[in-house]
Design goal:
There is one protein chain. The chain is mainly α. Helices cover 55% and strands 8% of the residues. Strands 1-2 form a two-stranded antiparallel ribbon. The radius of gyration is 14 Å and the shape is elongated.
Length: 78
């Protein structure tokens, strides 16, 4: 999804878009990027390291929010 978002900038509706409308899309991209680069112990990325329980909890919460927003249409491609 991160690649899809980056390949089609400006083509996403975000329910909470911010002042300019682009802030919402930038925030979603930033959240997805943080999850992708910050949680390395799965998904085939190398090298991996042991994450702390706090990191794991935050990653799960972030992933749940993103999945929910996409599934409910709060973030969707035009």
């Amino acid at each position: 999804m991160l690649r899809e978002l980056r390949q089609h900038p400006g083509q996403w509706d975000v329910a909470l878009a911010g002042k300019t409308g682009a802030e919402g899309e930038a925030t979603i991209e930033s959240m997805m990027s943080l999850l992708w680069t910050g949680q390395t112990s799965h998904g085939g990325q190398q090298p991996t390291r042991e994450e702390t329980p706090a990191e794991a909890r935050m990653a799960v919460d972030l992933a749940v929010s993103l999945v929910r927003w996409f599934a409910e249409g709060a973030v969707r491609r035009r």
